Amino acid sequence: MRCSFAHTAILGRAAAAAVAVFGGVAWHGAALAATWAAEVQINLCSDVKEIVRALQLRPAGAPREVWYFETPTRELFERGIVVRLRLRDRGGDLTLKVADQDCRRVDPALLRQAGGKCEFDLHGADFRGAVSLGRDLDWTTTKALLEARLPLSEALSTVQIGYLRDRTTAWPLPAGIAPRGPVRVDAYRPEGKRYVVEVWRLPGGQRYAELSQKSTDADAPRLRAALESELARAGVARCSDQSSQAGHKARDLVARP
Known about the structure:
Structural class: alpha+beta
């Protein structure tokens, strides 16, 4: 999830009805009942071609090339951390994602400074907050990072390093971190609907498919049930394991010589 923070403005006698939105969380009225950004994520196990046909999907943009950074023993993942580099025409987007975070305790100013977000991810019955902090890299830096001429610790921003240092047990970074990939990501969308289906193709041939849609924490369970009903009607199989796919991808990537 990606956190957006909304802030309540209480003005005069009309304050109980006032809502001021700032970033992504909305606090309604004097009771300060927070509404948080969320993302419903459903792992799909049907054949990719069948998923595309059954849901009448269309490609959403060109395929993306993504790299992950991990140790041979998945030390970052074991500490709830994913570091991902998405390539673009003139460089890359380096994202630090930290799981199991309480969005209510994350400073909105820090998120704005790093172009970041904190939102709740709903995987099956697992509903947890995650902070994402990004950094844009030019092509020279991106190439040096992928060729292991630049250590990951020197490519991270000061905000990313500060979050690792202050909110995790992963700073200094463990030894043995290397780029893992490339992973091809294809995105598909149905006409007139809000969800997206993404398919990850790993170098070892493994494929992972996930349907996701933005929501709020309050509406996420209802939305998940509606999406599951749509998948059942279309004959698309949900995976028995609905936990986050991040661990499985990390396992497959580090297992590749």
